[in-house]
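For this section, I looked closely at a protein sequence along with its fold in C-alpha cell form, which I now present.
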Amino acid sequence: MKSFIIILLCFVAMPSMAQNILQGRVVEDDTQQSLAFIEVYFPQLEKGAITDGDGNFAIENLPTGTYKLVSSSMGYETTTQNVTLPYTGNLLISIKTSAIEMEEVIISTPFHKLQRENVMKVERAKVGDLKASGAVTLAQGITDIPGVESITTGMSIGKPVIRGLSSNRVLVYTQGVRLENQQFGDEHGLGINDAGIESVEVIKGPASLLYGSDALGGVLYLNPEHFAAQDESHGDFGVMYYGNTQGISTNLGYKTSANKFKFLIRGSLSEQSDYNTEDYRVTNTRFKEKDLKAGFGFQDTHFKTEVRYNLNDSRLGIPEEIGEQSTNKSPLLPYQQITNHIFSSKSSIFFKDSSLDVNLGFLYNDRKEFEEEHDHDHDDDHDHDHAIAFDEHDEHDDHEELHPALHMKLKTFNYDIKYNMATYGKVETIIGVQGMHQVNTNYGEETLIPNATTNDIGILATSHIHFNTIDVQLGARFDTRSISTETELNKTYNSFNGAAGLKTNIAKNTSLRLNLATGFRAPNLAELTSYGAHEGTNRFEIGNPDLENEQNFQTDLAIEYKNKHIEVFANGFYNIVNNYIYLSPNGEYINNDPVYLYLQDDAALYGGEFGVHIHPHPIHWLHIESSFETVTGKQDSGEYLPLIPANSFNNTVRVEFEKTWMQKGYAFVKLSTTLDQDNVSEFETDTDGYNLFSAGIGGNFKVFKNILNVSITGTNLTNKKYINHLSRLKADGIYNMGRNISVGLTYKL
C-alpha cells in the first residue's frame, strides 16, 4: 500500500513539471552554411523536428532532464550530443558531409546509442532494403544480415539461425515484447509478417543479461514502424508480385499524429503458390496470410505511452513429397492454421534526472495442424481429396468439418520494467526486472507437449561508463524459471549471468570492441516431456526430465576501420556451450519410427564475419561490398553439431543516382557463393556448394504530386538447382527456389 501511494504521488506531482522548448540551427561543419531537411530527434522522448530552409528547428513540450539528441540526414554524418533541459538560447549543431549511409539509433541495447558508440556490435537492416533484395518472407530476408541464416521448411516456414544456434536458443522480440509462439517445433516459423516492421536488429551472441533465458544464442529484434511526426498524416499502398510463385502481397497503411495523440493502422494480405524449380513445383509450399497491425500513442511532457496490436492469421502448407503440380494457393493436407495475437504497451515516465520504462505484453498463440485421415478407399484420389478437404474447410462447409490433429493454445503475459538512473559523472546505470507467465493448453487429438505453466523472473543491473578514450559496459543478472505440468513434472531452473565489454579506438579511424558474456537456456517442454511420433520428422521422440540448463560463455572481438571511402571489419567469436541439448537415436523403433532421445554434451562454436565496403572518391555513388562468414560447431565428443550453416561469400556492386525524373535511384548486382558443407553431424549428409546471381533496380518517381517507389529484383537468375544445408526438405532431395522476378510498387499518399 505504501508503494502504491508513492507511485500515485509521483503521477500527481508530474503535471507541475516545467514544459521546455529547444530551439536551434543546423549548419554544415566546414562551410557553416545552414542545412534544410535535417532530422533532429530525441530517441528516448520520441520527439523531434525537421529543419526549415534556414536550418532552424524547434521542439516543444520537453521534460526537464538530460537526453541524447540525434541529428541525421542522407549525405551527412549522424551526430549525437547530450542536451540538458531547460536549455537557454539557441543550440548550434554542426554536421559533416559523408558518403556513408545514415546511422540509426540501436534500440535493442539498453542505452540506445548509435552503432559506432555501442560497446556491443549489433547488426541492423531496414526491412524495405531486405524486400528490395527479393526476399519473399521476413524469414528469408534476414539471411542477408551477416551471421544470420534460416532453417526452412519450404518457403513460408523459417526459423532464424544466429552463428549456428537456432530454435529456443534465439529469442525474437517484436513490439518491444518477447515473442512466444511454440517456437521449439521444427516446423514452427516466426509467425510475423514484415508489413509494418521498419527494421531488424541482431545481437549475435549471449544476450541473457538483457533478455534472460532463450537468448543464449542471440536476439532478433523487430522494430515496428514509427508513428507520423507531430501534426502530420501519411498513407501508403504497396503491392509486390513474385513471378516464381505467381504470388502477390499487398499492404495498406495510414498514420496521423497531433500534439499529444497519434495513431496508425496497417493491413496486409499475401497468397503464394508452390515455389518453382527448373524441374518441378514443390508441392504444398503454398500459403495464405492475413496481417493487421494497429497502434495508439499519447505523449505529454512527463509521460508517453503507446499501445500496439498485431493479428496474424496464416495457413501454411507442410511439404512432404513432390506431387500435385499446380499454381493453386489453397494448401493441401497436411497444413498449419495459426492465429497469433500480440498486445503490447510501452510507457515511459520522466522524472527530473531519471526515467522509468514499463513494457507489458500479452500474446495468444492458437496453433492447429491438420493431417490426412488414413481411411481413404482409393489412394489414387489422394491429392484430389486433399484439395477438396481444404476447400470445404476454407469455405466453412457444414457438410464436412476438419478437426485438427494437433491443437495448442499458448497464452503468455510478459513484463519488462527498467529504471534509468540519473547519470552520475560519466556513468549511466539501468536496473530492472523482467518476467513471464505462460500457460500451454491442448485441445486436439494428439499431444505434442503436456498442459503446463511456466513462470520466469529476472533481476538485472547494467552500467555504461564513459572514459576519455574508452567506453566500458558491465552488467549482472539473476533468473529463475519454474515449469509445472499436469503430468506432475515440476522443475525449477536458476542461473546467474554477467557481461563485460569495452570499445576503444586503437588507431586513427580504427575501433576495437571486446565483449565477454555468459548466457543460459532452460530446457523447454518438448525436451523435458516429449513422448510420441512427430509426423514431419518421421521419428519417435522421448523427452528427458533430468536435463539441466544450457550455459555458455562467449568471447567476441570486433575490429573496424572506417574513413570516408572505405570500411573494413573483422568480427570473431568463440562460444563454449555446456550441457548442449541434442537429439540422438538409441537404435530402437516404435511403430516403425526410430526412437530419438534428448541428451546433453558440452560443445563449442567458433567463427566470424569479415568484410569490406568501398565507396571511392570522388565517385561516392559507387558502392562495392564483399563479405565472408563462417561458423563451426563441435561437441566435446568430436562430433559436429547439426544444422550449422555452410561458409559463404557475398559480393555486391551497388550504384546510387539522382535524376530529375527519379529520386533515390539505385541498381545492384550480387553474387552469393555458398561453399560445400562437409562438417556435418552423425545424422546429416554433406551438402554441395553453389553460386546464386541476383540483380535489381529501383527508385522514387513523382506521380500526381506524390511519391511512387518502384523496385524490380531478380534472384537466382541462372535458375540454379541447389539445396541449402539448412533446408528441412534436403533429406528428400528437394531443391530450393529457382529463378524469381519480383516487382514492387509503393504509392505514398
User: Anything to note?
Assistant: Residues 18-98 form a domain with the Immunoglobulin-like fold (CATH 2.60.40.1120). Helices lie at 2-13, 127-132, 138-141, 208-211, 382-394, 525-529. Residues 698 and 711 are 4 Å apart (CA to CA).
